[in-house]
Amino acid sequence: MVFQYADNGNLYNFLKKNFRDLIWQTKLKLLFDISKDLFQIHRAGYTHADFHSGNILQDESISKNMQSLHRRSRVVQKRKR
User: Where are the alpha helices (H) located in 22-65, listed in sequence order?
Assistant: First the structure.
């Protein structure tokens, strides 16, 4: 798997360092964007089995990208219906 370079590291470290400096609108926008992406994964019939703030990468524009620390086949799994 190849990911775009994330200048600000993962969401956990980014928030740990910058939480007090971010306005609430920015925090809510991050939450909304992450929720939207997770919804798209679920809508496609997949689940992210290792979802946490350390797996969400932050680039310079504070956009997010989900990453996996394990193989994709282990982390994103087809839901059973």
Answer: 24-43
